[in-house]
Design goal:
It is a single chain. With about 425 residues, the protein is α+β, with helices and mostly antiparallel strands. The protein folds into 4 domains: about 100 residues, Triger factor/SurA peptide-binding fold (Orthogonal Bundle), CATH 1.10.4030; about 60 residues, no CATH class; about 100 residues, Chitinase A, domain 3, CATH 3.10.50; about 110 residues, Chitinase A, domain 3 (Roll). It has 14 helices and 13 strands. A 4-stranded antiparallel β-sheet has the order 6-5-8-7. It has a 4-stranded antiparallel β-sheet with strand order 10-9-12-11. Strands 4-3-13 form a 3-stranded antiparallel β-sheet. The chain is flat, with a radius of gyration of 35 Å. About 20% of the residues are buried.
Length: about 425
């Protein structure tokens, strides 16, 4: 079998010859590097193994870690080099490249994580007997390999909605993604021996309190006035609690409340509880500015010139001015397939979703007033903002983080399986005894 080796893997020989006219000529060949493994269409050199081993030994010693036997370390390192070589060849065949801009940005991030600028980072590498050039090459190689792994493994990882729900409901999920709630309550006491009429009277009182709260009355004042709870004089405040620390009767209700929102009465053995979520915090708590907007899009084409398109959008705008229905005009004229049949409705959308010009017009528009025609990279638009809100998207954030945790675990398992398969399928000829 014939193998084509890359230039960097050519056997390096130095031939030392001494020539004189009066002395017999002898040639001495000194081998300074050699192939220690053939991997498909490439090779691994002894110098590569030695350099990698030396780097690992240096780091282990810096960390005070006891060194494994030299042969075992060399064996482990060689296997890693073989696996890397297989992945680099896959990258070559797939045309995977890392641009200088990407590489510079990554190295800049690494330097920043170490509270250094690039120049200080270079000096730090020099003091650690590692050249910036070799470090740069190693990072580039890692980025290429990472891209190969994502391509090979990422698309094979499947996660169901049920898996996400199971994780969120597990003790681990509740601990890792726990939110904290600042909760207040008003308790309308009901005696165990209360008559139906007394119970109805308590319900009436609870509903009156809720109405007063909706009209702007202070929760603290209402709690101090009417609550039978132990924390009544503290505004009914229960303090910051995780979900697991809330009374089980309240937990589901509290999770469903928005900040500042008051619950309907909750019946317990003690009476009727009115719950207010004053605030919540945690690494999954997130609020998002959203806009409810609709639009009509008209695009130039092979049969419609730019000027004809502008004329058409102005005609549509005139129809709106004359009182025609936006929904009907959108279905008739809009060329956005995603919103056309919904009357141009783009739904509730977070900031930064649309192109800059669309975003600018949308943010400047008054509610329920359609814009003048304007042009974006997609064509000519008329938009109308129907509503704006600041939405609590913490639940979506919790699900996203749960998805990421599950994905990372599955990815790691799948990656190991994939690398073992790639190693088994590759032609590998190790030239040394380890």
């Amino acid at each position: 079998m014939k193998y084509f080796l890359r230039k960097k893997h050519l056997l390096l020989l130095i031939v030392l010859s001494t020539f004189t006219l009066s002395i017999p000529v002898f040639s001495q060949i000194q081998l300074i590097d050699k192939v220690i493994a053939v991997v498909d269409s490439g090779v691994i050199m002894e110098s590569e193994l030695n350099e990698r081993v030396q780097g690992i030994v240096f780091r282990l010693r810096q960390n005070g870690t006891e060194l494994p036997p030299k042969k075992e370390l060399e064996k482990q390192v060689l296997e890693r080099l073989i696996t890397e070589e297989i992945q680099l060849q896959i990258a070559d065949r797939a045309g995977i490249k890392i641009s200088d801009a990407e590489l510079n940005a990554t190295i800049g991030q690494i330097a920043g994580q170490n509270q250094m600028n690039i120049e200080d980072f270079k000096e730090s590498l020099d003091s650690s007997n590692e050249s910036y050039r070799s470090f740069r090459e190693s990072i580039k190689k890692e980025m290429i390999i990472s891209r190969v792994q994502r391509s090979k493994v990422g698309r094979t990882v499947q996660i169901s909605e049920q898996e996400i729900e199971n994780f969120l409901n597990s003790e681990e999920g509740k601990t890792k993604l726990a939110e904290q709630y600042d909760v207040q309550q008003i308790l309308i006491s009901i005696q165990g021996s209360a008559s139906d009429a007394e119970i109805e009277e308590s319900k009436k009182k609870a509903n009156e309190i809720i109405e007063s709260l909706k009209e702007g009355e202070s929760f603290e004042k209402m709690a101090a006035t009417y609550s039978a709870g132990q924390n009544a004089l503290e505004g009914g405040r229960l303090g910051w609690r995780k979900e697991s620390e809330l009374p089980s009767l309240f937990a589901t209700t509290v999770k469903a409340l928005k900040e500042g929102e008051v619950s309907e009465p909750i019946r317990s053995g003690a009476g009727l509880h009115i719950i207010k979520l004053k605030e919540k915090k945690g690494n999954t708590v997130k609020y998002e500015d959203q806009t409810l907007v609709r639009h009509i899009l008209v695009q130039p084409s092979e049969i419609r010139s730019e000027s004809q398109t502008e004329k058409l959008i102005n005609e549509v705008h005139q129809k709106l001015e004359e009182g025609d229905d936006f929904n009907i005009l959108a279905r008739q004229y809009s060329e956005d397939p995603g919103s056309k049949m919904n009357g141009g409705d783009l739904g509730w959308t977070p900031s930064g979703t649309f192109t800059p010009v669309f975003e600018k017009i949308m943010n400047e528009s008054e509610l329920n007033k359609f814009s003048s025609p304007f042009k974006s990279q997609f064509g000519w638009h008329i938009l109308e903002v129907l509503d704006r809100r600041n939405e609590d998207v913490s639940e979506e954030q919790r699900k996203d983080q749960a998805f990421r945790i599950i994905f990372d675990r599955k990815y790691e398992q799948e990656l190991q399986r994939t690398l073992i398969e790639l190693r088994a399928e590759a032609f590998v000829d190790i030239k040394i005894d380890l």
